[in-house]
## 1
Amino acid sequence: MTRSSGIRVAVSTAILTLRRGDDGDAGLALPLVRRTREPFADQWALPGGWLTETESPVDAAARTLAETTGLAPSYLEQLYAFGAVDRSPTRVVSIVYWALLRQDDVMAQSAAHLASGHAPENVQWFDIDALPALAFDHAKIIEYALWRLRNKVGYSRVAHGFLPAEFTLADLREAYEAILAKHLDPANFRRQVEATGNLLPTERFRTGNHRPARLYRYNTDVELADRGPLGSEETSIR
Amino acid sequence: MTRSSGIRVAVSTAILTLRRGDDGDAGLALPLVRRTREPFADQWALPGGWLTETESPVDAAARTLAETTGLAPSYLEQLYAFGAVDRSPTRVVSIVYWALLRQDDVMAQSAAHLASGHAPENVQWFDIDALPALAFDHAKIIEYALWRLRNKVGYSRVAHGFLPAEFTLADLREAYEAILAKHLDPANFRRQVEATGNLLPTERFRTGNHRPARLYRYNTDVELADRGPLGSEETSIR
């Protein structure tokens, strides 16, 4: 039996945020890194790098994400290990992670990085409906990450990853609309989320140009359905 | 940057079946292979082996499963890539697959293997509530596979993997009860599965000691919710 000595292991991360476009609508966006060497030199790729012998895959994903983009999500989850023989000119298995990051955290982390004088180079955020040509099989990987996100939003609190601790039902619906890429009826949406028991009303309201909107928070007594027995060791970085 | 040259890639498969115990109740069982060499010599492990340079991980999982157990499931799905630094004495990332196999297929494949004179050695089926001590982190891997199966049965047709093409509602409920490890109320269960639209009644009945029970089949017009854009390339072997 040939051992896998010629196979290298890489990690990549698809990290998504929700940002408001020029048209006022919120949409999903993610950062890509322009490659500076072959293969696929000058093309865009997911942030990532090689797994080293002394770190776990999730630690490698967090490290390479920080090195290439300066971003530090609170939660990374393994998406899939991609290993098709022809996905790279040499044989590389990529363990891919995904994460959600609030837009205000993106802004704060980017500002801190700029102030430190170590701003990452060759990084750019793209709307997911306007992606450039991508290196390797990264277009397929992003498509799969979006599919998982869309599936997951139906049975978990995953949209919370885009929201602050307190939010209005309109904020939550906007996040769902961006994830699912479709309009949701406000009254039906309210009825459905209220029926889950996952949301708790607060006594606070957001005021502004419109009539005051009640702020809600997630009910953290309800167990998140999607971590399971792996716990913090394999899926979480802090 | 250190490249991952000292890291080897393995594959393992957790393949589950539903079998009737001496008490008449159906329960989950899976095959384990007794290791013949260090590390963990003489301990039990999931069927698996090394990923070679010329095959994809799912092909390697199918090959090593056939080599060690003689089993050929119709469907293998990636479970997770396990890569903790200390999970093996040397650095090994294991891409783990899982599959469901009907008990009559297990029997037929095992009989064919015996007849061929190439019966696998050191393989034994264990009830999942009576597992032996396991090598590496395989106890954790099996715990995670069961957790995924229990989650998945709630929102997909995964229990179909244990059933023949036509089955009674009692057969289906028995599969759910074994997966969830709890008793389900027959009337509630019938109401819930009929509400999904996933089941189609046939004009055939099973007769025997009890009153005739109608046979159902899955409605294959309803899209399976859990394959997504990876399609056949990464998740299926035939």
## 2
Amino acid sequence: MERIEHHVSFGGSQEVWKHNSTTVNCEMNFGVFLPEQALRGQECPVLYWLSGLTCTEQNFITKSGVQRYAAQHGVIVVAPDTSPRGKGVPDVPEYDLGQGAGFYVNATQQPWASHFRMYDYVAHELPAVVESTFPTNGARSISGHSMGGHGALIVALRNPGRYRSVSAFAPIVAPGQVPWGEKALTAYLGDDRQAWMQYDAVELVAKASERLPLLVDQGQDDEFLDSRLRPELLEDVCAKVGHPMILNMREGYDHSYYFVSSFIGEHMKFHANALT
Amino acid sequence: MERIEHHVSFGGSQEVWKHNSTTVNCEMNFGVFLPEQALRGQECPVLYWLSGLTCTEQNFITKSGVQRYAAQHGVIVVAPDTSPRGKGVPDVPEYDLGQGAGFYVNATQQPWASHFRMYDYVAHELPAVVESTFPTNGARSISGHSMGGHGALIVALRNPGRYRSVSAFAPIVAPGQVPWGEKALTAYLGDDRQAWMQYDAVELVAKASERLPLLVDQGQDDEFLDSRLRPELLEDVCAKVGHPMILNMREGYDHSYYFVSSFIGEHMKFHANALT
């Protein structure tokens, strides 16, 4: 573990740490914001944030403005990179597969299987690293954007009791039914669509044993809304099985961090209510 | 004039516009945030923001979180690029001279003189473009970071009556006394140090005919504080001549946008008080 960046921010500390991940078999970076309470050693709840396609740990920590709200609520915010990276890690030229596009699954197909285990990384290894390094109190929530919104939903839904709340900005809710997901899941998991279902929020929420506070924000001018995101699929299944879901459709907003930064304060308040 | 980017943000619109500048003889980009009031056609005050070395119009608009506060106070925020750019524009490999390093002066020396007229651009051409394009009410303030803090100070101090207030984050206050400034002013203006004085906030404030609300924030862990910024030079002359100045030294903060974003809300409140 090595701290490679740190900046005072809103009275807390925005840091980037590097560690050797045994799950994805390479060095991984993650951002961590420590509010002033945590710097004093007080045990704090943790919000995990999963970013979207092409992002590293930097996008959310430099563009979302989350630090203001994390400081206000006394929440640690952890933002990992979106995939294994580096010379030994397989990649392709496309932006939506390989490095920067881990899709938060455990790949079973070659050449991906030895590194692309982002599900286990964010659900297990990363929380263990965080909780053994920083002053945490065991309360966790999770959120994310686009591919990372998909990641947040599946990680929360597959681990009942582990997270107090889940939220997402413009998430991919049913990867098997949209082009981004079909391409990635075919490459990482093969053609057997049964294997895809463990990474499909719409499938998982239908079987969920837990009623988890769930908040989704979606821009109505998001260029990917109808073809690649389709939040109505999640809304429909939540209504059918009686799972709570707040879906805010936001007029005029697109898929960018200008959308995320406009509503991250509301998401932090939603999570703080569940965490504290 | 062409709008090349627009995103809904905090109920307003964050845009980037491109235009042919007759002052710097090339295409220039600037960011403009229009709060909801301006989108409805209501005339609003304008805050100009000048960025630091290496920046384009993007840094401030993606990293500072200013939109939240601009929306709250109903202020238009204009953030130009830091220099002329492009194939026909002179440049050198160093980050602190040429493209990305205009220093907000009108160069008199070759090869810079035909393009590097950033003083006239930000003091005259840009406000004229903004005020003929967007619904403005004539009230202006100006702020900036590092080299851009220097720019904000000299533009405000040289144009009494034009700006209601001025602020800066970690500004270069006396370019003739620090390495960044000595290098740039020698290249752009030549060896005659008398010519440099019109771009030196410490010199200008000593002669100011106007008492302008002036706010400076400075991180105490800024790596450039003692060698290249030296805010005490401005504090001393303000005390000597009785010019108002609020100087906030911020424990632990560095020179990054994590510092700017932590206090941009306070600067926007300071300007809004003067503007509205």
## 3
Amino acid sequence: MDYVYGPGRNHLFVPGPVNIPEPVIRAMNRNNEDYRSPAVPALTKTLLEDVKKIFKTTTATPFLIPTTGTGAWESALTNTLSPGDRIVSFLIGQFSLLWIDQQQRLGFNVDVVESEWGQGANLDILASKLAADTAHTIKAVCIVHNETATGVTNNLAKVRRILDDYSHPALFLVDGVSSICALDFRMDEWGVDVALTGSQKALSLPTGMGIVCAGPKALEATKTAKSVRVFFDWNDYLKFYKLGTYWPYTPSIQLLYGLRTALDLIFEEGLDNVIARHSRLGKATRLAVEAWGLKNCTQKEEWFSDTVTAVVVPPYIDSSEIVRRGWKRYNLSLGLGLNKVAGKVFRIGHLGNLNELQLLGCLAGVEMILKDVGYPVKLGSGVAAACAYLQNNTPLIPSRI
Amino acid sequence: MDYVYGPGRNHLFVPGPVNIPEPVIRAMNRNNEDYRSPAVPALTKTLLEDVKKIFKTTTATPFLIPTTGTGAWESALTNTLSPGDRIVSFLIGQFSLLWIDQQQRLGFNVDVVESEWGQGANLDILASKLAADTAHTIKAVCIVHNETATGVTNNLAKVRRILDDYSHPALFLVDGVSSICALDFRMDEWGVDVALTGSQKALSLPTGMGIVCAGPKALEATKTAKSVRVFFDWNDYLKFYKLGTYWPYTPSIQLLYGLRTALDLIFEEGLDNVIARHSRLGKATRLAVEAWGLKNCTQKEEWFSDTVTAVVVPPYIDSSEIVRRGWKRYNLSLGLGLNKVAGKVFRIGHLGNLNELQLLGCLAGVEMILKDVGYPVKLGSGVAAACAYLQNNTPLIPSRI
Amino acid sequence: MDYVYGPGRNHLFVPGPVNIPEPVIRAMNRNNEDYRSPAVPALTKTLLEDVKKIFKTTTATPFLIPTTGTGAWESALTNTLSPGDRIVSFLIGQFSLLWIDQQQRLGFNVDVVESEWGQGANLDILASKLAADTAHTIKAVCIVHNETATGVTNNLAKVRRILDDYSHPALFLVDGVSSICALDFRMDEWGVDVALTGSQKALSLPTGMGIVCAGPKALEATKTAKSVRVFFDWNDYLKFYKLGTYWPYTPSIQLLYGLRTALDLIFEEGLDNVIARHSRLGKATRLAVEAWGLKNCTQKEEWFSDTVTAVVVPPYIDSSEIVRRGWKRYNLSLGLGLNKVAGKVFRIGHLGNLNELQLLGCLAGVEMILKDVGYPVKLGSGVAAACAYLQNNTPLIPSRI
Amino acid sequence: MDYVYGPGRNHLFVPGPVNIPEPVIRAMNRNNEDYRSPAVPALTKTLLEDVKKIFKTTTATPFLIPTTGTGAWESALTNTLSPGDRIVSFLIGQFSLLWIDQQQRLGFNVDVVESEWGQGANLDILASKLAADTAHTIKAVCIVHNETATGVTNNLAKVRRILDDYSHPALFLVDGVSSICALDFRMDEWGVDVALTGSQKALSLPTGMGIVCAGPKALEATKTAKSVRVFFDWNDYLKFYKLGTYWPYTPSIQLLYGLRTALDLIFEEGLDNVIARHSRLGKATRLAVEAWGLKNCTQKEEWFSDTVTAVVVPPYIDSSEIVRRGWKRYNLSLGLGLNKVAGKVFRIGHLGNLNELQLLGCLAGVEMILKDVGYPVKLGSGVAAACAYLQNNTPLIPSRI
């Protein structure tokens, strides 16, 4: 029973879960193992060491939690904060909305800074709030690096600068779900206290592993954080780290081997090359959108995301119909518009293990769908724009030179 | 890089994670998919319907949570109870201990009923506590069906009887991690309010899915339960069940397809045949232990477990050395003794997708190891005892008659 | 060690081996089995029955030989002919050339009918030869249905007509390696005596199985055919067919299960839909080539192949450089020009398990490569032409309506 | 559709095809690739270099032919001999019989030296034939190193000695199908001119690759050998070896990667350790047979095979019933008795990627089956005998020390 089967490959362009590279699929194609044998801790040790590299941190402590991004969020909050704590959080799209909802339900006092969907976090308001907060009642600043619903990338370096400007001690918590390992992210340089991602995003693994890095200040905060936590408690992990057995409960053997291979592939390509590739594919997508005469949901270039592009459709078209036709006619999986932008945007995910020709196939598909639904696109126009850019910017595959 | 490799198969006899059947490994050998396409909800719908069958319930609501058994525990508690609630919980081994630890850290008032490790839950004490509790201050009775550390199976039907005897309204919460789908378990008949298991146990999948069934009384209890919860909140699932999209956050596509195949295999063999097979393998193991002149950690036959046997070694032997040699010399993975019984017992897991000859290979291996570590076993004795029983009781494979 | 790895998928557009569908990869992901158990013959029986459907024959006997197309050729010849036998064979490209070389080395008296590369078989010469051969010295007419080197499809119905016109009893032997299961092929209707293909072509399996169908007249011919043969002897198979064990020597278990799934997928899509899909993709490719201002190596429309297009490059470009750059820069695998057309053509294979968007990604890639090597292509032009056609002709995926 | 499925693993103890190690299954779990890209020749080059090591040759040229053992036989004969050539061949069981049948059908003048099934090749007769053949009419001596039907290993070193004693120039052709990479085999030291094996035997791959090594004298012989050959012609390979593209026709990409991993695993374990492991498992099996009171089909210890044991059953038992029950009741695949020994022997294959506990599970199964069919075996007796030996002789797994 294969629910998804049609002739040829499924073209997976949702912004997660993303395409898994063949070597990773292979690595995960295995029986279970005893996680208390000497082999699994030995493997885990390499993973914990290497996963820090994709966060660009040498000082933080990583946790590989059997959960999703939502669980990773929860671990970041409950390990560092206490109910009633005041936190500043930016609402700029569906995923920041969901995180704020979680923050509120976990009992924090959330100071929501809202922007229009399609804009980045309003950092001027952050500055004024921090300026006013001489009593340091703000315990944490929570921000989604890349809002997957609108394709908006926030400026984290600037958040750090503002915190520093006011010498504010608030923790800096970052959702890097659709950014880490695809966009420029520098945990140590930007003084991020907790950063997290999910296995099914830029790491190009199946869903099921929340990857959280906690800096020294965040670990210190766990000592006073009164939020109730057991499954997500970092201290349970730390206890087993000391023992060298690493796991407070059973990990997914398959995901461990998968992560090993995923990291190997990333390091083989070079993390900076991976990020540059995302930049190229993002740019090519935006050029195609422009050529189609459509608008990016993201309102300013400074916020353009290199991992997902939300495309605004004309009012006479239902963007959900675009996604539906992609699925039914071309075996193309695009992202729906969510919540406020439902029906108004569709999304092209261009993150993870992807290359130029895969993207161009997707763009050609979008052109045909646009025509299908009555938008007067000039067929080939977006592909041409993307090709013109890519043909000048795509490097040779290093291992094949 | 294959940390676990040696010539031939690894003989996996820890009581979880267990051997994955080849058809399930195949089913999971796939790329990611868009979980918002029509295919994934269609698949999920069949899973939610069919997973109830292995709990023997028609009235409960299942949740397939991307977590481990520990997370499934947490969801059972936080969705139905409020901090400060009095609960009765039985401490009979390492896993009941860990659950009680969780219960305490989640802020419940835990009335611990302790037994010697190797004994079952003391249900007489339960009876007296319920008798005394005319005010119904006990909000829940929490019990581990099968204590994986000692190989003790508790009598759930009797728990139900006692609750009924006193017409006590306490919720009946069951950890079925190493029992459901392997031992006789009847959620509806026994009036269990919440039952849970993990994918890597009798279902023979990789780790990563906590499977929880909540009966009507448990769902009712969620309305007043004040425990803080977001990731584990059943209501977030129920909202998406109503929409027919099923997932509040991203599921593991691979585990969904894996579960589909796992259930298909179980139904093809017949759930009762699966349970009978576990009974046969459990009995054969105990006969071997007896033939070796060793003692079962479980003190009475009524508690003998058909999914795991903890074998007591003589005081002059360190049971950890047995596990170590199994790994190093025979590619055999046995379970360590944990906590109070560390060094004193080793464990043979005989659950999940397993057959007679696999077990006999393991038993032969244990005999050689026992000799390796200086125990005067008669080689072949345990295998002979097991064979004598199995040769008379193993049915033909139905699909091959 | 993964020699072929680069970021993203490899875009495989050689005319074989072709892309394997995920369900087939899954089906082949398995341990060996005893081929003398009851299971393998039961499986084989279904394969022999079903494989006839893709040849459109009910009267022929199929052989699944552990070999390549070259071996399948050899089996067709040695089982039906004797050294010295006169045969007519058409030389129109590299693969017909290789078959003729084999025919000569096997000791037949080959009457070669040569055409310019890029033209189809000269059937007028066939007619005159048959007309002259009143003594019936011609024992067989050998023809490649689809010459993979030049993208030329021969008219088999016409070959049959000519044979019938002269009531000539020569055997009609067809190489259907790059046609069967992709192009219109009718073994019974066209009176083909032996037809053959290879697993790695339209069936979209790994290499390793030569699939040969022998009609009643061909089987009759085996009785007098004196060519030396053992490994390729059909009679060894027929002996085991009678016994119901089917295999004179060990088959590949993996390929058997793979073929089962491949056939299931083809029947699920519908053989006629599969052929129609190839026709669409072939037409789209040719429209792109035209838009680029390049010439099809195939000189007339009647010979255009729906499984492979050989594109002629201008004299100032080395077509091998196009293939090299596809590999090195875009992870695109195109077919080289072979022998007489080496350096002059490159080939786009569009056969097997493939869909529209995969092809469009390839075409976009070719456009960039053409620009890379200095050909003044208008970027997007070929994709636009292909899209314009496909957008009007691609049906919904039946299973998703 | 899984024809072979039953609960737990299938216990595969036929003497081929044998169990594939998980890392090899993983390595083969992949899409097709263009075999004309730079990657496949680079991979092939390492394979051709490394495969010679398992033949213990530095001077021979290897061919990886897409065929089975039967095809490998054919290539050995047709490349080196001419029709009518006199060859000496030993008939000692079903596989030597089949090879002789092939030799005769290929037109050679076969001087058959027959022994009772269960005995080795009669080398005294060879000596007398060579002594008499002062005219050197004998062009080749053909011998099966290990007769898989009876479990007889011939003494190749002695064959060489006899050839040398008479300074006879006959080619020395060896079928090493069930020996190479499992038994002591030394191509160069023993002056073997052609040796061959199949991928599905000790190399533990799927069926589909015939591996043939031809020494300098054999390559020289190709120049005068008049046997008709095309598909099996080594010269077609040699032509492509020179070009560095290696393949005269399409290889199985999956088998190439599989072979790479298989060789890596063998070298990691150490070829001598692999051979020692086969020796241990063979010895343990024979000790079990003895303990059961049954006879080895092989009549003398000097011929005992370390890769397969044919066990003679009492006259009142049909050995086929033993194989049938193994399959139907215990998911155990044993080898049937073939031809002259059909019904009289069953065979336990103990070759390929296998370890002690797998074998012991099989032996326990055989004991139960023997009891099932009415043989008065003492349950546990064979396992005890095997364990007693193995417990004293099994080394630690080197990578785990």
